[in-house]
Amino acid sequence: MPETNYQTNQEFFVDMQRCIGCKACEMACAECETNGHDSMIHVNYVDRAVTIQTTVQVCMHCDDPVCANVCPADAISKDEFGVVHTANTARCIGCSNCVMACPFGVPKKNEAYDLMMKCNMCYDRTSAGKKPMCATVCPTQALFYGTREEIARMRPNSSPVNNFIFGNEKVSTKVNIMMPKGTTVLRVD
Amino acid sequence: MARLPVSPEKLIEQFGPHRNYPPQEGFVGRDEPDEIVNTHCCFCGMQCGIKLLVKKNHVVGFEPWMEFPFNEGRLCPKGVQRYMQNNHPDRLLQPIQRQEGVGFQNTSWDEAMEKTVSEIKRIQASYGNDAFSILSGVSLSNEKSYLMGKFARVAVKTANLDYNGRLCMVSAGAGNKKAFGLDRISNNFQDLERAEVIMISGANVSETFPTLTHWIWRARDYGAKLIVVDPRVIPLARTADLHLAIRPGTDSALYGAMLKYLADHDMLDHDFIENYTTGFEQTLEAVKDYTLEWAEEVTGIEKQKIELASQWWGKAATSFLLHARGIEHHSKGVDNVVGCINLVLATGRIGKPYCGYGTITGQGNGQGGREHGHKCDQLPGNRDITNPEHRKYIADVWGIDEKDMPGKGLTAYELIEAIHRGEVKGLLSICFNPLVSLPNNNYVREALEKLEFYVCIDFFMNETSRHADIILPGSLHEEEEGTVTTAEGRVVRIKRAVDPPGQARTDTSIILELAKRLGAEDKFTYNSSEDIFNELRVASKGGTADYFGITYKKIEDNMGVFWPCPTLDHPGTPRLWEDKKFATADGKAHFNAAAYRPPGEVTDEEYPVVMTTGRVVSQYLSGTQTRRIGKLVDLYPEPKLEIHPELAAKYGIGQDEMVRVSTRRGSDEFPANIVETIRKDTVFLPYHWPGKKSANQFTPGTLDPVSKIPEFKVCACKLEPLGIKSPPSTDSQAFASV
């Protein structure tokens, strides 16, 4: 691993309450040539007919990434900082195992390239000590990148949660979702 | 002769709008730019700080500017894509002139200038000086806004100069002058942070000023209650503590009823009212019959919600009230504004930390551009062109005889009406696209077709300038030095990042050359934008918008300076009225009576549905820039008619089915977007598109009697289902509709 300036005390926090669906994050992510101008973060209406609410989905960077575990080509790796990287282009065979396995629905297969692509938390920026582009531009800070102390101070009514229960499966992640104060786990049944 | 020389389709083929996308592999040189320029976004009144990456005189990308205090790197999608207006295939690269049956042909600067000047002289000699008019805009810097005012009065010698701020916040400006004697937001946005109650009236903050949302969410982190007044559940309203879904056109009834409630329940700051204001009794008298029941009947808001809003507002220790075009774009826009101000004054919550009030200025330089004199009734420093002392002071600064200074001219829409009547024969426009942005635009088109001569200065050909005889290629925001004043009243520096391409010139150099050829060279001797700013400083000195103490260096050293700043050692004024000395003649804040009256057009049997208009997050104003940026177009490709499911069911309209929308002024077809997030009696259309996709073919030219702002926000329409599914939005080509 080359020398980096990755700030290990900085974490990613997502707060759906604050999202206004403006898609600045998608626009900014898609500026990156390494993504082929596709966004690796996705903003969607929950149900536009009844609400203006949007959700924003970024790679959660699981502690034990299922996408990497199911990859037959060993194309997905997690680094020493916990960042789960996008598929190694030399290895990815476009089988879509990761697409089907991810509990958060994050990896997408780019059919044109026959390649899985997903968020690598702007490794070019975070390894240089900067914040990921989406969290930098997010006008409402629904996407926040900083320390746990900062978020505790700034958002006294919310708690970061990075433990999720899907049926019988427990998933813990590097990325946090902001939940009502005192919440420790998000159960998705 | 201002008819189109060829079909609009043919003009679009040559001059656009075309959608500009970055190359798939990215712009060459972005990783190793020659220069990184700290400047600002070219779009809304937030004027977010942004860094532009420059390679070989091209803007090739952006970086967030983390240190700029208002936005700290945050941007909206328009800001992210703003650099794509550079390197654009539609860019006008040399002067062009109309040729019947051919379109536009290249010409030389000398010929274009000569033709322009000879036509100005011919029209003025034949019909009088005021028969030649100028329409300006507030995407222009302070320097250029000031220059346009001086150019009109000193070089062209016409009274008929107005600007597109007339469609923006003039109702707020007029209301603020009545109440405070000065037209600026009272506080910077940081004062939102610890406001206990925030009321947002008619301001779709999350789509029109997305980066302001951060400051509102910050306040809520500290427990602020948020009240949103809007006919739709806008993104900001989704989680609001109270959403007052008001019937369009009834705002002043709401504020009147709230004022009465505050008085009836003694939630007033008696000391403030008694010692620092005038007019309270008369104002209260005007609303004495406005019970909650009456207000519910008029506004369509449940009385319990009005009562709760009044109680929260009445009991709060700190508060911030913000409004925007939603209450200002009305034939009683000024009444709506003073209705809001009355609530602020009644509770005395102004001029203190976390106690604020103001309009959220919409255009990039909506604030500074409305202060320095390209408005028909105004001179620099927000002076009054009808005031003899003000005229004398500015005449001296300009080195002219006061008697030679034209008087008050016509406002923007009145000017179009005068052109339509044949009274005004010539037009110079810059930074204004009235064929998309003015109401009843079929009428506007008729007016344009009657012009004897029309010259436009712009960087792209817009829908209006297709009617021009001459188009002079001007400059983008990033091609000239200057300053703008943000919605907070913060004067910031715009940096030149690149030079105009081809034979395009800076707007300033074009105006200076025209002034020279009109024989006024000695009055326009500037070597730089800073020279113009330094004259503006002197011209504004002693006015309410006093910039005298602001210099380019001071702005750069402090990342902006808040006016008023009367002396060089003055730090600027982020918060007004801390001394409770207001800028009115008597030094007091003025309550203004605002009795309710209905909008200019109400529903009837023939036109039974209320229509309102507004914006979407990915487009800016008339779209001259944003309808040319591919990714922004793709985000919201065409205007859709937002309609509630109950109203849709009544007419048998299905999701994505085409609906014929008609008002007394126009009729066209739009796809329906059926959503529960709008009032059941109201439909909404966003206005950024031209031609058949234009919302402003429907809106009326009814004006506020004081501010002369058109009533964009309410009219009566009828709906007819066509029973056919709309084609995919991506096929609509609405960005280049004819």
Structural descriptors:
heterodimer, A: 189 residues, alpha/beta, Alpha-Beta Plaits, 5-stranded mixed β-sheet, two-stranded antiparallel sheet, 16% helix, globular, B: 738 residues, Phosphorylase Kinase, domain 1, Rossmann fold, Dimethylsulfoxide Reductase, domain 2, 4 domains, 7-stranded mixed β-sheet, 6-stranded mixed β-sheet, 28 strands, 29% helix
How is this fold's topology laid out?
The complex is a heterodimer of chains A (189) and B (738).
Chain A: E1 11-14, H1 24-29, E2 42-45, E3 54-57, H2 66-69, H3 97-101, E4 108-110, E5 115-117, H4 123-126, H5 133-137, E6 143-146, H6 148-154, E7 158-166, E8 169-180, E9 186-188
Parallel strand pairs in A: 1-8, 7-9
Antiparallel strand pairs in A: 1-6, 2-3, 4-5, 7-8
Chain B: H1 8-15, E1 35-40, E2 49-55, E3 58-64, H2 77-81, E4 96-99, E5 103-106, H3 109-127, E6 132-136, H4 142-156, E7 161-163, H5 170-180, E8 197-201, H6 205-208, H7 213-221, E9 225-229, E10 242-244, H8 251-264, H9 270-276, E11 277-278, H10 280-286, H11 292-299, H12 303-315, E12 319-323, H13 325-328, H14 333-346, E13 355-359, E14 378-379, E15 383-384, H15 388-398, H16 412-420, E16 426-430, H17 434-437, H18 441-449, E17 453-458, E18 470-473, E19 482-485, E20 490-494, H19 507-517, H20 529-540, H21 552-558, E21 561-562, E22 589-590, E23 609-614, H22 630-635, E24 641-643, H23 645-651, E25 657-662, E26 667-674, E27 682-686, E28 715-725
Parallel strand pairs in B: 6-7, 6-16, 8-9, 8-12, 9-10, 11-22, 12-13, 16-17, 17-18, 23-27, 24-26
Antiparallel strand pairs in B: 1-2, 2-3, 4-5, 4-18, 14-15, 19-20, 20-21, 23-28, 25-26, 25-28
